Structure formats: structure tokens, C-alpha cells
């Protein structure tokens, strides 16, 4: 067995060392590249083939090299990575993933938005798309930053206090409500409740430049997410 090992993991190529793969003797990788190496299939280029998730395997190699879990901000594949770690019998990595999840403090974040629908010339017969003006974020400052990262706009709420304070003046730099929901779900939050106003609530004349149909369908919704 050479010291430099070339791998094909689910169609993704990797190059590493035998020492890295055998770093933890209790893992499946150490077993495969030890006594079980003769049974490993190879691809057309002579690389050892593993029929697993090739993209997530990079984090497994990183863990074997550094003995620490390094995941990018906004990582959304924890459950799949957990399954890969279980397959390769990476007990230490499994513990790190679970501890990271359990260490997150409980909290509550409220998402709100005011929206309408943009119409074409034919009114209701030509609905083009949902129109959101802004997505508001309310909650503990530290947790809002943890969940939304660089997509959080804090310009309306200058940080005059610590991260343990609460705010109702953050909003997102984008207008995609499903992206906000995905961020919350990926950080362990679940929706606990929601409420919304009805449409066509105002009979007053809209301001100059405001479309009559859009004004008619204005509404406001809030969604409460909690993490236990």
C-alpha cells in the first residue's frame, strides 16, 4: 500500500495519505485501508473507489487530519454528514457533531414581512409574483447573528450594547422568506406559531405612484420560531 492514496468517492477525487486514513484504528476507513485493502474496487484510473457522498467526504478527511470539526457558516447538511460519520464509524466525529448541536442555546426569533402581489395590466388575471418590501427580524442579537450571518442588515439598530440584548430593528438584505426559514431550520429552530393580517383592508386612495391593485392586496405576516 503506497503512502499517497488516490480516492474516488462517489465521483469526487481526493488525494490523501495512508496515515490520515488509518489515523483512528477503530474506523471503517482504517479497516478498509488495512487488512481489507485487497477487496477495495478501483476505477478506470486506478483510484480506490468508495460509493459514498463525495462532497461530504471532504469534512471527514478534514476531521481525520485535524481531529476537529470545521464546517462552513450556514452549513445545511449536518444530518447527511451525521449519516456519513456513522457509516465510517467515526465515533469522535459523531460526538463533535452532536455536541455542537446540543450546545446551541435555546431562544426565540420572530420573522415578519409586509407584502403584496404585483399585477399586470389585466389585474387579477395576470398575477406576476409575490412582492415583499422587507423581512424584519426580532430576537436576541447574538442568536440573530448566528442564524443569518452576513445576510443580516443591522443599519437601523447600531450596536450600543452587548450581544445579549434584544432587538426588533434588524432586517434581511434579501426578500426571500423561504431562505430565512431554511436558515432557521438549519440552526435547530422550529415554527411555533404565525399570524397575518387580511388583504384589502384599506379603502383610502393610495399614495401617488402606488398601484391600486397592489395596495388592495397589502398584508402583514409574522412567524415565531423557537429552539428548545
Q: Key terms for this structure?
A:
alpha+beta; postsynaptic cell membrane; elongated; Potassium Channel Kv1.1, Chain A; cell membrane; about 230 residues; three-stranded mixed beta sheet; H1_KCTD8_12_16; membrane; single chain; six-stranded antiparallel beta sheet; 2 domains
Q: Mind sketching the topology for me?
A:
Layout: E1 4-9, E2 12-17, H1 18-21, H2 28-32, E3 48-50, H3 57-66, H4 78-87, H5 91-102, E4 107-120, E5 123-140, H6 141-148, E6 152-153, E7 166-172, H7 177-186, E8 190-196, H8 212-216, E9 219-227
Parallel strand pairs: 1-3
Antiparallel strand pairs: 1-2, 4-5, 4-9, 5-7, 6-7, 8-9
Main location: membrane
InterPro entries: BTB/POZ_dom, H1_KCTD8_12_16, SKP1/BTB/POZ_sf, T1-type_BTB
Function: Auxiliary subunit of GABA-B receptors that determine the pharmacology and kinetics of the receptor response. Increases agonist potency and markedly alter the G-protein signaling of the receptors by accelerating onset and promoting desensitization.
What does this entry look like structurally?
Auxiliary subunit of GABA-B receptors that determine the pharmacology and kinetics of the receptor response. Increases agonist potency and markedly alter the G-protein signaling of the receptors by accelerating onset and promoting desensitization. Residues 3-105 form the BTB domain. Keywords: Cell membrane, Cell projection, Membrane, Phosphoprotein, Postsynaptic cell membrane, Synapse. It comes from Drosophila mauritiana (Fruit fly). InterPro entries: BTB/POZ_dom, H1_KCTD8_12_16, SKP1/BTB/POZ_sf, T1-type_BTB. Helix content is 28%, strand content 32%. The protein is of the alpha+beta class. It folds into 2 domains: 4-103, Potassium Channel Kv1.1, Chain A, CATH 3.30.710.10; 107-227, no CATH class. Strands 6-7-5-4-9-8 form a 6-stranded antiparallel beta sheet. A 3-stranded mixed beta sheet has the order 2-1-3. A hairpin with a 2-residue loop joins strand 4 and strand 5 (123-140). The longest helix has 12 residues, at 91-102. The chain is elongated, with a radius of gyration of 25 Å.
Amino acid at each position: 500500500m503506497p503512502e499517497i492514496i488516490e480516492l474516488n468517492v462517489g465521483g469526487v477525487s481526493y488525494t490523501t495519505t495512508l496515515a490520515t486514513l488509518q489515523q483512528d484504528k477503530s474506523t471503517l476507513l482504517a479497516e478498509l485501508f488495512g487488512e481489507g485493502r485487497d477487496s477495495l474496487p478501483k476505477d478506470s484510473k486506478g483510484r480506490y473507489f468508495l460509493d459514498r457522498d463525495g462532497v461530504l467526504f471532504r469534512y471527514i478527511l478534514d476531521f481525520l487530519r485535524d481531529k476537529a470539526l470545521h464546517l462552513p457558516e450556514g452549513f445545511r447538511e449536518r444530518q447527511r454528514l451525521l449519516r456519513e460519520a456513522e457509516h465510517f464509524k467515526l465515533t469522535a466525529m459523531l460526538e463533535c457533531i452532536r455536541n455542537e448541536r446540543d450546545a446551541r442555546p435555546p431562544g426565540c426569533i420572530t420573522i415578519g414581512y409586509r407584502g403584496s402581489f404585483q399585477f399586470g395590466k389585466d389585474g387579477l388575471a395576470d398575477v406576476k409574483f409575490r412582492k415583499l418590501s422587507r423581512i424584519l427580524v426580532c430576537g436576541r442579537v447574538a442568536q440573530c447573528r448566528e442564524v443569518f450571518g452576513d445576510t443580516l442588515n443591522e443599519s437601523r439598530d447600531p450596536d450600543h450594547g452587548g450581544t445579549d440584548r434584544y432587538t426588533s430593528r434588524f432586517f434581511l438584505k434579501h426578500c426571500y422568506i423561504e431562505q430565512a426559514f431554511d436558515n432557521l431550520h438549519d440552526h435547530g429552530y422550529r415554527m411555533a406559531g404565525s399570524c397575518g393580517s387580511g388583504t384589502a383592508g384599506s379603502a383610502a386612495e393610495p399614495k401617488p405612484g402606488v398601484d391600486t391593485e397592489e395596495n388592495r392586496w397589502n398584508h402583514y405576516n409574522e412567524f415565531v420560531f423557537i429552539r428548545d
